[in-house]
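Contributing: when you submit paired examples, paste them exactly as shown. First protein:
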Amino acid sequence: MVTIRRLHPRVEARIHPAPARTPTKTAPIPARLEARRAASRHPPPAGRSRPRPRGTTVHFDPLTIVIYVVIVALVLYRVVYRQLRGTLLTRKRLLVMPVILMVVGVYTANTAVHNVTTKELLLLGVDILLLAVLGALRSATTTLSAREGTTFVKGTPLTLVLWLTTIGVRVGFSFIGAALGVSTTVSSSTIMLTLGVSIAVQNAFTYQRIQKLGLPLSDQTPTGINSGR
């Protein structure tokens, strides 16, 4: 009769021989991760900085957001609402608002935008060009007349449509930039700049129309009954 021995796997060395020392196979590193590691090992040359990742957004502090809201509300009232209702124009009114917007826009763009790419500059240029054209068209849709020693301007329903188109174009370019993989930093930090350029072009064309029609234009707001418009 043959006896069968049951071997215990923990004590029988033949079941678990000593492990052989062989080179460990490592999993391949993805190309994107390898590129990041190479970039971290090799810093960029002097005078150049690393490109920022796509989709980077600019973050504003609460005070800046409040300032933006106040400026937008001021523009809506002093420019859009007054223009549609009708208002007396002066040289000061034609100049002050666009200058303030462009100065604020240049400041925010300068402090928030760094290492702008060619694609971002191209998108910003097209945005400014379209808004400038819309500004000229808005000026052409307003009516001008002489009143109280200066020029009275009044918008039309088409002026309102063009204002809504201006807002839609500005918002639309932000979505277009995001769809193309362009950083939203440029579009979000140049809102005031592009809006100021659009209003400046509109006021410049309005001033040109005033000169062409031979209408008066006061340096100061008249003190008549309708001067508050």
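Second protein:
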Amino acid sequence: MASSLQEENIKAAFDLLDTDGNGVLERQDFDLKAEKARKEFALVAGSPKHRNLQVAYTAWWERIRAAADVNEDGRVTREEFVTSVINGMLSDPDYFDTTIGGFARALFEAADDAGTGAIGQGQFVRIFGTVGIPADAAEAAFAAYGASTIDLDTFVTAARDAYGSNDPDAPGTATFGRR
């Protein structure tokens, strides 16, 4: 069973992913997020980093659709999404790595314009801004790490914790402004 914190964060994730606000997730929501990230990080259309973003967002959508779209209408309701994520978390220890790992890695690589393997608070806030998380919530989440930069593994953990952690003190848990 998911905790109330997990369930609230999963619902918040749905709300952020529903880019057009029509109450369901569809492929276009993920295409719009990928384009927003491309623009935010000034990626050249068709560049390797842009293609990585497109592939990662499309793969994330396809995983969500395959697991949650029970009536196969190409749309995922909030209830379908929440149920699917909770079932995935409870049944598969690698669930987050196989659903959001590629997406998180592609966003990190897009933001790491210097190619150092680390990003600072500004880049972290910009990443989370592309998915609709307010700057103050992203700043609080970053500050919880107590470092001036974070590496890819830490970022992927933050993304996973954002809606999967049951630990209210996990830094990623603060991403949606909840603890």
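If you have annotations for the second protein, write them as plain sentences, like these:
The chain has a mean pLDDT of 90.
Residues 48-68 form the longest helix (21 residues).
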